[in-house]
């Protein structure tokens, strides 16, 4: 993010100087890069160089520049709040605000390993266990006693019924469905519920990607379910989740 913000500031400052002193920057001094960025901004497009620096969090080319700048400002504000308040005291994290959301989950895994002791951490792997709660981000004031709360996750291919906390089929041509707050904890693999319990709750491990247009490597796997329906049903519907609404 720092590289992106530095590039944006430098480019915008050069364009500002050009508009204020148009006779001082002409010919070879006005690079093709500045011309392309100015042209994209004039047509309310996100400059390609900025999209490349945004990495996996970059929106599609069809996104409006104003929407992206407003979203980027909200992400910076969220990160600033975390720095001021402290990670241990922060109630819920917006995963979409992070350029590298895996790093946040890696911190959670390190905390779990330390809590279980060094011997346990060396003997077996640690995995994530998730629970989709019925709470909204505006109703959370304190962090959980274990793990962390995250929000800003969208599911595609199905919808989530908040009253019953179950997956439902979705109407054709329907967009993504935002999920409530998700509680993530990291536990040793041996403490994961037994296979019989997983069958009883019909749990499906839904991959959570940075975005639908990003490389297909999930950030983590999220547990979702519907009673008396096999998990293969959701796999056939292409159920997946993203931390960005695109």
Give the arrangement of secondary structure elements.
Layout: H1 2-20, H2 32-42, H3 48-54, H4 65-85, E1 92-94, H5 101-116, H6 118-123, E2 126-132, E3 148-151, E4 154-156, E5 159-161, E6 166-168, E7 177-178, E8 182-188, H7 195-201, E9 203-209, E10 220-225, H8 232-236, E11 240-242
Parallel strand pairs: 1-3, 9-11
Antiparallel strand pairs: 2-8, 3-8, 4-7, 4-11, 5-6, 9-10
Protein model, in words:
- This protein is of the alpha+beta class.
- Helices cover 37% and strands 20% of the residues.
- It has helices spanning 2-20, 32-42, 48-54, 65-85, 101-116, 118-123, 195-201, 232-236; strands at residues 92-94, 126-132, 148-151, 154-156, 159-161, 166-168, 177-178, 182-188, 203-209, 220-225, 240-242.
- Strands 7-4-11-9-10 form a five-stranded mixed β-sheet. A four-stranded mixed β-sheet has the order 1-3-8-2. The chain has a two-stranded antiparallel sheet with strand order 5-6.
- A hairpin with a 4-residue loop joins strand 5 and strand 6 (166-168).
- The mean pLDDT is 85.
